[in-house]
Design a protein that fits this description.
Layout lengths: L1 H15 L5 H14 L2 H29 L3 H15 L3 H13 L3 H12 L5 H14 L3 H14 L4 H13 L3 H13 L5 H21 L3 H14 L5 H12 L3 H14 L3 H8 L7 H12 L6 H13 L3 H14 L4 H13 L4 H13 L5 E4 L22 E4 L5 H20 L1
Antiparallel strand pairs: 1-2
């Protein structure tokens, strides 16, 4: 009787593991027959049939949802409910099928059901977080994130959501503690850790300035700039502070160091704004001085060419564009600058139109790109306006990774160093 009674449990366990151990079932069937327990035998057969049919329909439903076949998925879910109603696997299947048609109500209902089962709770909370973020309900998202954190604080996405939401909601110290914890546990990689911490320090500096704590703000801005010089805002804010204090030389040093590490477009405007009374021609000379801190970088030529065109210094504009194109294929920006030069400097509209045509198929120029949604704003953002992701922007050519971009720039620097030595 004990052997017969154990069979449903074995079938149930096998069902959860998505496999039926035929040998065990057949052995139990033989025991039931040999010992004459017809009720147990019939119950075993019934359980086995239900499990097998349920498993078959679930597999069919998985295939349907992966193929984005909503109608076939609905059919499979209805069949699965007739065999294994109430099983969490049916809720998972229903949730994934609802995603095909973006049925938020169905996604939410099934996600909430999954949170009531310990084994599937993390799946439910993940989907509820995503819904809240889509609605930009950050408080609701944080509520579910904290519940997910209690269950699985070792998952990278859980830690990332916890950090992002604390930072977004102005809880800087809590976010910093979470980030440090994730880094110590090796959940957060070093580069992501530096970018996220530098952005968070910038946020904390802004908050300190609003609270009138200038000393703390400068400390946070300095730490941010030193830690990760690939975002412009902390250095610009720091330079503005020292310039207002009459320490222009210190401001020049801060911005030049960023340009030396990696030229970023916002640095140009911040650098030139240190001398508000300069005319266009003096500004070009200032830009040439900044360019010397990272000689050989192609962005130098384009920035100076743009300024020269604006000042109608046509000879210098042509020189800088020629220097750029001597080592680089035309980009959209360089081709448009050539069109401006031909139209304004040479009054050659036919040639200008040729360059405009080239710009349509020319290489993309580096820009700020959100790693989460692909948004491309004109300037760096600590938090993406499009998707709400925190510390998600890198300055790169679309299609490149940051690592690839930095490797290219390092090769440019090395070539410049070799030229200087020779």
């Amino acid at each position: 009787i004990k052997k017969i009674g154990a069979l449903p449990e074995k079938v149930s366990k096998a069902k959860q593991q998505k496999e039926i151990k035929t040998e065990e079932i057949e052995a139990s069937k033989k025991i039931a027959k040999d010992e004459g327990y017809k009720d147990g035998y019939n119950k075993a057969i019934e359980e086995m049939t239900v499990a097998q049919n349920g498993l078959t329909t679930v597999i069919g439903g998985i295939v349907a949802t992966l193929a984005d076949d909503y109608k076939l998925g609905e059919k499979a879910i209805a069949q699965a409910n007739s065999f294994i109603s109430g099983d969490p696997i049916v809720n998972i299947l229903s949730l994934e099928n609802a995603k095909i048609i973006d049925d938020v109500t169905a996604i939410s209902d099934n996600a909430k059901k999954l949170t009531s089962v310990p084994e599937t709770a993390i799946i439910g909370y993940k989907n509820l977080i995503e819904i809240a973020l889509k609605n930009k309900d950050f408080n609701e998202a944080l509520k579910y994130t904290l519940k997910a954190y209690e269950i699985r604080d070792d998952l990278p996405w859980v830690g990332k959501y916890a950090f992002d939401l604390h930072a977004t909601l102005g809880m800087g110290k809590e976010a910093l503690e979470l980030l440090e914890e994730g880094y110590q546990k090796k959940i957060v990689k070093e580069d992501a850790y530096k970018r996220m911490k530098a952005t968070l320090l910038y946020y904390m500096a802004e908050e300190s300035l609003r609270d009138g704590d200038e000393k703390a703000a400068i400390r946070y801005l300095t730490q941010s700039t030193d830690l990760y010089p690939y975002i412009p805002a902390p250095a610009i804010k720091l330079a503005e502070y020292y310039n207002a204090k009459g320490e222009a030389r210190k401001s020049v040093g801060i911005l030049s160091n960023i340009w030396r590490t990696r030229p970023l477009p916002e640095i140009v405007g911040a650098y030139l704004s240190l001398w508000k009374d300069d005319n266009k021609y003096v500004s070009i000379q200032r830009m040439e001085q900044l360019a010397m801190s990272n000689s050989g970088h192609p962005m130098n030529h384009l920035e100076i060419a743009q300024m020269a065109i604006d000042a109608e210094v046509w000879g210098q504009a042509r020189k800088e564009l020629d220097l750029f194109h001597a080592k680089n294929r035309p980009t959209k920006k360089s081709a448009k600058l050539m069109a401006d030069f031909e139209a304004g400097g040479n009054s050659n509209n036919a040639e200008a139109n040729k360059w405009l045509k080239i710009s349509e198929t020319a290489n993309q120029d580096p820009r700020w790109v959100c790693s989460k949604c692909g948004a491309q704003p004109a300037e760096w953002q600590p938090k993406c306006d499009s998707c709400g992701a925190f510390a998600s922007f890198d300055f790169l050519t679309p299609g490149h990774t940051l690592e690839e971009e930095l490797a290219i720039e390092e090769s440019i620097k090395e070539a410049a160093r070799s030229k200087t030595k020779s």
